[in-house]
Design a protein that fits this description.
Layout (H helix, E strand, L loop, with lengths): L1 E2 H6 L3 H11 L13 H21 L9 E9 L4 E9 H7 L13 H4 L3 E2 L3 H5 L1 H12 L9 H16 L9 H9 L10 H34 L4
Amino acid sequence: MKTVQETLREMDKEELMRQFFYEHPSKLDNFDDDLTIAQAKERANKVIGKYIERLETMEVKPNDRQMIFYMYEYLGSYKLDQNRGLCTVADLQEKGVEAPNYGIEYTPQEEIMGYWVADTEMTQYYLNDLMVEIMWDASFFGVKQEKLPEAIKELEEANKEIDEGLEESFNSYEEFEDFLYGDEPRPPKLSKEDSAEKQKIIQAINHLHKKFNHHLQQKEIDQILKEFS
């Protein structure tokens, strides 16, 4: 099983950059007014090229927590879509689909590059999609994460405010509706009987939807865990 860095080193960089800019096109507002579109594209390619080179060559941290990226399918509104999972192997073994899925925006790039990438057929098929998402999230606070220390400080302050009970709260659903709609007209309400029937149907649909998506995800988790059995 390879790390993110080892996987990145073996990938087609031109194809990876093409998909990166397809999913995250550069905004002209980010460039000087005197640059042509061609010059802006050239500069953007240079920045991302150096970013990939940085990720490929940096010294990674050991994957002591056994974090692993994997891809799995889920049923969206009308078709199968793909999701990225990031969990510890221990959580996958113990909790399966209920394992917490971690974000990486606040994680040092040296740590991310040491995480594993699953060898499953699904993950390898969507490898470019996975790597583009990793590259995007890992550069959320700059390609060198230059704004990460400040962001972590702001996050800690925000968490402190929540712990102190400064978050918005509502004493009733009516208060929440007042906050949500303000002076706007409220949506029409169903009768008590129709509302109960509607809720019953929604719960049944949600249960089947969740059950099917858990089945799809657990299939991929089972494939991963074969490596560790």
